[in-house]
Amino acid sequence: MKFHVIRYKPYLCELIYIDMRQEGHIGLALLLIAPITTLLIYFGNLAIGLVFTGIVVWFSTFPDVDIKLQKWTGKNGIPIVRNIITITHRGITHSVWFAIGCGLIVGSISLVVTSNIYISGIIFTSGFLGVTLHSVGDIVTPCRSRL
Ligand SMILES: [Zn+2]
Known about the structure:
The protein has 147 residues and is mainly alpha-helical. The chain contains seven helices and no strands. It has helices at 8-15, 22-43, 46-59, 65-73, 79-84, 96-114, 117-139. Residues 63-64, 90, 94, 134, 138 line the site of zinc ion. Zinc ion binds at residues 63-64, 90, 94, 134, 138.
């Protein structure tokens, strides 16, 4: 007699695995930042609103770069590389720390270019929000993201 161990949740997860596609992440991000973009354009100017939106849209798909990186750093990756850094799907690139890091990078670049702390703050927020809203999109899909 053969027993089958039924791992209900992972099986269900694999069966109806729906990973939000890039278009979905961009659409969700645009929808959720629409009030902020409107306020930025109304009280600031069009350029700030467009740059803010563009950075959020770009970062809203960036965390899934881990799918490409898994080839080298995942479970079946190159051992030498894998021992130094292990990146799995929906791991570190879907964390708050990664969002803060992305925000700091674009915010710092903005500070060097504009020398304006307020604009840099807005740019930091756009990088942070882009990554965070990506994770929000992943949370609402069946294979939940671990924040
Ligand atoms: Zn993702």
